[in-house]
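Section 3.1: Structural characterization of target chains.
Under the original work plan, the team committed to producing a structural model for every single-chain target entering the pipeline before any wet-lab resources were allocated. The record below documents one such target. The sequence was received from the expression subgroup and is listed exactly as submitted; it comprises 464 residues.
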Amino acid sequence: MLNINRKSKIFFVIGSGGSGMLSLLLIPMLTWFYDVKQIGAYAIFVASIGLISSVGSLALEQSFIRYYYIDEKDALISKFFKISTIIFVFVFVISLFFWKDISIFISSQISWISFSLLMLSSCITIASKYTSIILRMEGESLFFAIGQVLNRMLLILFVILSVNDYFNIIKTLNGLFAIHTLGLLLSFIYQVVEIRRYNIIRLISVSLTKEWIINKLKYAIPLLFSVLIIWGMSSIDKYTLKFYYGNYELGLYSNAFKFSAALILFQQLISTIWIPTSMRWFSIGKPLDVYKVLYTFVMGGVTVIYGICIILTPYISLIINKDFIASIAFIPILMLYPVFYIASEFTTVGILFKEKTKFSLYTSLITVVIFLTTCFYLTKVYGVYGTSFSVVISYIGFFVCRTLFSAYSWENIVTNKSIAYIFICFTFTYLYYFNDNVEYKILLILFTCSLLVLDFIKYKRVIK
């Protein structure tokens, strides 16, 4: 039997990467089993789960993290489960008065099944927040990773099963909602089983006091605002398209967005390594040049990857249903947002080093205001293209705010060459839309690679 250290931190990376890769595989698969409008409705369904689970939990999971190592764990989780259940039941009862309107908005028809699956998924999502936190806080990286990957694997399995006429119901819109809900449920059950099997934590009988509830809500409620901002940044675009146009345009945009977000896989892997590494460097007094050189190298690498993705984008038509081919036109624009997100993950280190968390809140507020104003205007005037540009503009603002606040708090690690790499990314985008000659793109990639090689030779000692 293999001797595996189930608490090895590498499993956190594997879980995020594996889940992301399976999500990428799932994107073209869905286009062969569901039409554009169904994918649009599914995007709203998932976005609404995020909203309901955030409001339905009042961000109490953030308070749970805060007190995890302070209070007795069994009593703590039992109390949080109890109060979260009460809050969600309250939200559910209120939503019952509007269930027809909610189901029409989600599925474009009055459907008790759609509404029920939405609320059930939201409930499971809230519960899963706590089980995931427990596994992370206890360092159970293997179980956490399996839970992430299992959810995506189950979705893929259910979609494949729909090929058989016996499972033909899966191809309906409610069938799509149902397999999403079932995937969440089975992943949650797996986490609960592992938590109980290793006696990591258990539920016990507890009573809630008024003082305890007020104390925990005082910590959680202010954070709910930040949680809703994060939700808004990933969902406002979808709600805006749904409002102005409908499920067809939303389906095309959603498909393009998912392909574009594939670059976020690199952001997750980079952040997993970069944040603890940079904190360690700061604690031992590493010189500023080290941060600048590494950041420049990463931006060069991201530029090369972006260029390769631009060249490969037209070939996506070979793996998706012809009804979704129109969505490919939006991918090069949308792929710019992960570029700026990755860049900001590096330039924001000063805020972390100096613990200026207020600047993170300011950045979120400014970004969401930019997103709201540009999204509503540009979507109304230019449709899906407008929404795509709105996302990119917002993340440019996000990058600029993080960079400026970080430089104000500590130092500026942005270099002229890193800015040049960003302009090269814009050049790739321009070439995609206005020049079909692939040779130019290849030359630009080779030019970027040569800059990386020269820098490696020049700064080899600094990198080591």
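The chain has a mean pLDDT of 89.
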